[in-house]
Amino acid sequence: MQLIRWCLVLGITLLVGCSSQPYVETDHQAGFDFASLKTFSVAETKQDSKEDILISPFTLSHIHSALESELAKRYQAGAENSKPDFIVSYHVVVEEKIDPRSYNDIYGFGYYGVGYRYPRPYFLGTNTGLRVYNQGSLIIDIVDGKTDKPIWRGVSEKRLSRSMAPQQQREVLSKAVVEVLSQFPPIK
């Protein structure tokens, strides 16, 4: 009975580990006093390269709103005519990646697998294939409002599905914003 429990716990742990969570990485300026930050402003992003033009302006507007909403939970929005303590800028990068895969014919797929017919020597061996996918990165930079120098960066990366509807894309981006900003300010 104890063995079954351990197998169940191990199985659940493996499933959770294999879930499609975005990869989040952060970096910051050492020695900066993040506790002094009280007010913020989110800068408008610009689409200035050919790759950026493929990203919908509605998606960028959604990211802007998600950043403002998430930061407003912990900080105060800067007044219109005053300089905020920190300024947030963001970028979205979508890159096409290639994932080389290999599989063994003895296990096969469907009709060619061991369970459906006896493997013959010419069915055995390793095959390879390439899978092309899009890798999306949300980059959030935070700049000191007084010195205009960067103090923090957070990056979220996730494999994107081409079949996602715009509303699904925005939900994924909202989660990415929350996950990245959950690591700001850095814990000392």
3D structure, described in words:
The chain is an alpha/beta fold. The chain has a domain at 21-98 and 135-181: Double Stranded RNA Binding Domain, CATH 3.30.160.670. It has helices at residues 2-17, 57-72, 166-181, and strands spanning 23-28, 39-42, 76-77, 86-104, 126-144, 150-160. It has a six-stranded mixed β-sheet with strand order 1-6-5-4-2-3, with helices on one face. Helix 2 (57-72) packs parallel to helix 3. The chain is elongated, with a radius of gyration of 23 Å.
Strand percentage lies at 25-35%
Count of alpha/pi helices? 3
Rg over alpha carbons:
23 Å
From the N-terminal CA to the C-terminal CA, the straight-line distance is 43 Å
What's the CATH architecture name of the domain at 21-98 and 135-181? 2-Layer Sandwich
Uncertain segments are: 3-19
Order of helices and strands: HEEHEEEEH
Q: What is the CATH T-level topology of the domain at 21-98 and 135-181? A: Double Stranded RNA Binding Domain
What is the CATH level 1 assignment of the domain at 21-98 and 135-181? Alpha Beta
Broad structural category:
alpha/beta
Please provide the count of β strands.
6
pLDDT averaged over residues:
77
Strand line-up across the major sheet: 1-6-5-4-2-3
Can you summarize the main beta sheet?
A: 6 strands, mixed
Overall geometry comes to elongated
